[in-house]
Amino acid sequence: MNLADMLCYADIQQLSNIASTYECECNGHSKNDLIQSILSRVSRRDVFERQVSTLSTEDIRFLNSLVFEKREMFSLEELMARAQQSNYDSPGDGRNPREMIAQFKHRGWLFNGYSQSTKYLFQLPVDLKRRFTDTMALSFGQNLNYADEPSVYRDEHKLIVDDIAHFLHYTFHEEVVLTGDGSIYKRNLHQLLDRMAVKEEPVTKGGWRFGYGRKFRDLPSRFSLIYDYCYYQDFLSEQPGKLELTDKAKLSVMEGRREDLSEVYRFWLKLYKGPIPNLQSLVYWIGKLAVDWVSASSLGSALCKLIRPFYYDSPEAIYDQRILQMLMHLGVIRIGEDEQEGKTIAVTRLGQSLISGTYVSDEETIPIEFDNMTLH
Description:
By secondary structure, the chain is of the alpha+beta class. The protein is built from 17 helices and twelve strands. The chain has helices at residues 3-9, 12-21, 31-42, 45-53, 57-67, 76-85, 97-106, 126-141, 159-173, 186-195, 221-232, 247-254, 261-272, 279-289, 296-303, 315-329, 349-356, and strands at residues 74-75, 111-112, 121-123, 153-154, 176-177, 236-239, 242-245, 294-295, 333-338, 342-347, 368-370, 373-375. The chain has a four-stranded antiparallel sheet. Strands 1-3-2 form a three-stranded antiparallel sheet. Strands 5-7-6 form a three-stranded antiparallel sheet. Helix 1 packs antiparallel against helix 3 and helix 6 packs across helix 7 (97-106).
């Protein structure tokens, strides 16, 4: 429902609170006057943008988590959890989640359901979601530095699909040995990495690597994604001491099939949403703000405040290595270099199509197992 519909169902107490927030001058005892006055104020662009501009970083994170959720209803417990998760900079010292929810109700951004079955649930007006994204895009875009198209840039297009086929082809024709801990034998791994269109170095021992896939500990990031995609597609059979293809994968190799890039992109979202819960919204903002070549660092300054640290990964490292780098591997963005701005990025036409055409719900996140623990 839109804001006008929700105001009609709201009780006069909430309408009075909203009217007070927007400094409406009207008859506070008339529900109709309150509704008309609120709609008149909220419809003004300057008033709406001023309300958004006064939000704290925690409020922006909370709002961001709601705007990109396709579900229409939230329980109080869900809202409390989202509000709590928005206060990760200073745990224990952040704002009370109930106060954040109350503030959003007073702004006319959250309403209780009107039926018997939904009166204890909350919803965000649909028309306000669009206005939030437009207003937040303006806010994020204020300090971006744009650049000319670089003379040289990296655009991997659909190379990851080709390399999935190379991996399956190699495993079909060669014996791939697994060590006692289930990792690919060094000689096989070097041969596989040499066959990839995008070169990566084997993972060096010593650093902690976990959370971004089953094989992320042992394999470089891009090939780890390729391996995990094949595993979850039921292409691989991990036998004691060796890696084999399933019958499904053998048929795919013999018929020369290629995977659909949109499915690989969808899988990446599902896999990385564990350590980066709001990944989908971050990718949306990149798609919205990097239509033209933009400085990666200036875009990072706007978006890193939305990224929660993940163990050893800082928001800046997650933004650069886990998001931008992987988006390039998936053909979603190009990465170039500018003399003044340094690293620059731009979303590809293919990337715009993937971002706008893909949605992954919270339930689709893939739990990652590591060191006898499961990350959800």
